[in-house]
């Protein structure tokens, strides 16, 4: 029981910190930290969506960054074409991500294991090249979003604090949704499929259909993160979908603790703060980050949540 | 006609180069069950080593040979220091750990060689065009790549199918406990296989280096192509990798060369010139999707264990 409380206490602490952060930023006048954490929260949202299929569903997608790009491009392209309303941009971003997930998922789920990893990676890379070829929307150089999504007075995305809270609300909403999904009958079937697909099929569950629905839900959530990210940076480029970004998301999930509800948030916070911290020490931060990943894989079983659990027990 | 033959040979050359990369990847996966994303880094290191050694020695061939040896050693060191501990772990662990290695290699290269790319100039005797058919000339260097890669493919085939080491490698792939119980030093065998894979990647990198610039991240795009090839050909199958590599190399090269013109005849000029680059870079992924729909295990799956 005690192990439970340690990880729960830390989670609560982190969440409270995230809620109170704008206050600190206001008092200290440190605007940078608010911008940094807006980005962290958006990527935590993406990581949480990846965790739904990877941690709970056992589908190791190495192409999750594609949705970040699709959601982002939906916002950027509509803005470019003069459609500035967020009420149109966001639903389009979500629908486009869902469509992509449906097609990619239907194809990729014909395979499993390493094939699945490689195929999702290859499709995401395809999306990357397609975006690079969009000459009308900036091609390789990317697309500047001159005006953030307009929610007609409901919420102002150009206001840092309001935007921050919007992102945080989206993150918490998605985590809540994942919690509901995981504990629903649907979620239990998906988790059952992760443990033993053949057995689940033998009981009579159409395995692929369940997995595909889960894959689409996850992709749609990540599309939301993409739409927010484009608004955050006022810019979207093919680089958002580059495969190293998919790798980053995977690292966040593993680092935080795969298959735990709040693990991805922890992972995103720690990973991105570490990246920020190391890049301030040295230009060659990846020289430290790379071997660190190796060590985490070799010795850090269960990620941060796992370690907190062990610390509570020990 | 000239263009068709030339692009055809370019496709063959690119495909063979992809084969060298994919062969190492599929060998390591088939035998050690290790997913090695850092394979592209070894390709990059091969190119950097070659550019450096060629500049030191002043000889392209000597530089290439030294680079080949250096990637072999690098592969062996990498296997013994890090990757050995990953055998038998989850594939996801492999992906993450080797992803970390990519970050490390890219950054190490930036630190040592700087962010700007290097060039590997060809010696004069490799730059002359060679007549291959009456009236058709082809660059000697690209021809040399085709010949070397075909030779390596042949040696690899003979080595794996006809020698004692090859027999052990195949035995290790199908049952590692049994071959260990029979008194074979499986650790050493794995290290050798990994070194061989690394050397193949290095060879691909150093041969590609004079055609493209030697730069950071050069291994990553081609690594993903190698993945596509393995998926199409069937994981663990060298024969599948060979055929799929040629196929992908051809489709990619011919698509890039001729698709814009083909599209221009169907679509208006502006639409064609926007659609063509995107479509031609999508071609091989479409191919992969089709293969997956028809044969999810790849075209030539290795024998089931």
Short description:
The complex is a heterodimer of chains A (314) and B (305). With 314 residues, chain A is mostly helical.
Portion in beta strands of chain B: under 5%
Radius of gyration of chain A, in angstroms, nearest whole number: 19 Å
How are strands sequenced across the largest beta sheet of chain B?
1-2
The SSE order of chain B reads HHHHEEHHHHHHH
Beta strand % of chain A: under 5%
Mean of the pLDDT scores of chain A? 89
Shape of chain B: globular
Number of strands of chain A: 2
CATH class of chain A: Mainly Alpha
Query: How many structural domains are formed by the residues of chain B?
Result: 1
Describe this structure in words.
The complex is a heterodimer of chains A (314) and B (305). Chain A has a two-stranded antiparallel ribbon. With 314 residues, chain A is mostly helical. Chain A contains 13 helices and two strands; from the N terminus they run αααααβααααβαααα. The radius of gyration of chain A is 19 Å and the shape is globular. Chain A has a single domain (2-313), classed as Orthogonal Bundle (ABC transporter involved in vitamin B12 uptake, BtuC), CATH 1.10.3470. Chain A has helices spanning 2-28, 31-56, 65-80, 86-108, 114-132, 160-183, 185-195, 197-203, 207-233, 243-256, 263-281, 286-299, 303-313; strands at 143-144, 235-236. The longest helix of chain A has 27 residues, at 2-28. The model of chain A has no long low-confidence stretch (mean pLDDT 89). By secondary structure, chain B is mainly α. Chain B has one domain (11-123, 136-294). In chain B, strands 1-2 form a two-stranded antiparallel ribbon. In chain B, helix 1 (2-32) runs antiparallel to helix 10, helix 2 (39-57) runs parallel beside helix 4 (91-113) and helix 3 packs antiparallel against helix 8. The longest helix of chain B is centred in the N-terminal third of the chain and has 31 residues, at 2-32. Classes of the chains: A mainly alpha (314), B mainly alpha (305). The A-B interface holds A 60, 62, 107-108, 110-111, 113-115, 117-119, 121-123, 125-126, 129-130, 132-136, 243-244, 247, 250-251, 254, 284-287, 289-294, 296-298 and B 29, 35, 82, 85-86, 89, 91-93, 95-97, 99-108, 110-111, 220-221, 224, 227-228, 230-231, 235, 274, 277-279, 281-282, 285, 288-289, 292-293, 296, 298. Chain B: Belongs to the binding-protein-dependent transport system permease family. LivHM subfamily. Chain B: It is a multi-pass membrane protein. Chain B: This is Branched-chain amino acid ABC transporter permease. Chain B: GO terms for molecular function: transmembrane transporter activity. Chain B: The chain crosses the membrane at residues 12-35, 64-83, 140-160, 188-211, 269-294.
């Amino acid at each position: 029981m005690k192990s439970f409380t340690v990880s729960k206490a830390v989670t609560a602490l982190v969440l409270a910190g995230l809620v109170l952060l704008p206050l600190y930023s206001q008092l200290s006048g440190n605007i940078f930290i608010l911008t940094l954490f807006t980005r962290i929260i958006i990527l935590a949202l993406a990581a949480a969506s990846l965790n739904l299929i990877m941690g709970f569903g056992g589908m190791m997608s190495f192409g999750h960054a594609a949705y970040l790009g699709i959601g982002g491009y939906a916002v950027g392209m509509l803005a470019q074409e003069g459609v500035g309303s967020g009420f149109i941009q966001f639903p389009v971003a979500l629908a486009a991500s869902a469509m992509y997930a449906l097609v990619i998922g239907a194809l990729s789920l014909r395979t499993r294991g390493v094939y699945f990893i490689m195929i999702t990676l290859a499709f995401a890379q395809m999306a990357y090249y397609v975006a690079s070829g969009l000459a009308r929307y900036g091609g390789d150089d990317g697309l500047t979003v001159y005006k953030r999504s307009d929610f007609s007075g409901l919420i102002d995305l150009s206001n840092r604090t309001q935007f921050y809270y919007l992102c945080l609300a989206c993150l918490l909403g998605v985590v809540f949704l994942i919690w509901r999904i995981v504990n629903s009958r649907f979620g239990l079937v998906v988790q059952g499929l992760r443990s033993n697909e053949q057995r689940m099929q033998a009981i009579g569950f159409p395995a692929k259909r369940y997995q595909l629905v889960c894959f689409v839900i996850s992709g749609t959530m990540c599309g939301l993160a993409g739409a927010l990210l484009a608004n955050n940076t006022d810019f979207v480029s093919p680089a958002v979908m580059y495969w190293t970004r998919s790798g980053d998301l995977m690292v966040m999930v593993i680092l935080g603790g795969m298959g735990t509800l709040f693990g991805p948030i922890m992972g995103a916070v720690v990973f991105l703060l570490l990246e920020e911290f190391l890049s301030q020490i040295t230009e060659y931060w990846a020289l430290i980050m790379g071997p660190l990943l190796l060590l985490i894989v070799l010795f850090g079983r269960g990620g941060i949540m796992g370690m907190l659990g062990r610390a509570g027990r020990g | 006609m000239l263009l068709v033959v030339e692009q055809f040979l370019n496709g063959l050359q690119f495909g063979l180069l992809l084969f060298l990369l994919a062969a190492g990847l599929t060998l390591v996966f088939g035998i050690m069950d290790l997913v090695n994303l850092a394979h592209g880094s070894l390709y990059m290191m091969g190119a950097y080593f070659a550019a450096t050694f060629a500049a030191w020695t002043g000889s392209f061939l000597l530089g290439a040979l030294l680079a080949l040896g250096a990637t072999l050693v690098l592969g062996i060191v990498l296997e013994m220091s890090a990757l050995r501990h990953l055998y038998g772990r989850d594939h996801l662990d492999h992906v993450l750990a080797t992803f970390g290695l990519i970050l490390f290699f890219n950054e190490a290269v930036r630190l040592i060689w700087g962010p700007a790319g290097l060039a590997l100039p060809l010696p004069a005797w490799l730059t002359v065009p060679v007549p291959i058919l009456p009236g058709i000339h082809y660059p000697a260097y690209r021809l040399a790549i085709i010949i070397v890669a075909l030779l390596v493919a042949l040696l690899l085939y003979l080595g794996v199918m006809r020698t004692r080491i090859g027999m052990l490698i195949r035995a290790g792939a199908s049952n590692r406990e049994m071959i260990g119980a029979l008194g074979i030093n499986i650790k050493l065998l794995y290290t050798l296989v990994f070194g061989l894979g690394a050397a193949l990647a290095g060879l691909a990198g150093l041969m590609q280096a004079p055609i493209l610039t030697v730069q950071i991240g050069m291994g990553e795009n081609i690594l993903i192509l190698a993945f596509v090839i393995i998926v199409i050909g069937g994981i663990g199958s060298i024969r599948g990798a060979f055929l799929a590599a040629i196929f992908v190399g051809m489709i990619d090269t011919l698509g890039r060369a001729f698709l814009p013109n083909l599209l221009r005849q169907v679509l208006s000029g502006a639409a064609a010139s926007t659609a063509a680059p995107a479509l031609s870079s999508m071609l091989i992924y479409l191919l992969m999707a089709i293969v997956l729909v028809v044969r999810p295990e790849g075209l030539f799956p290795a024998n089931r264990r």
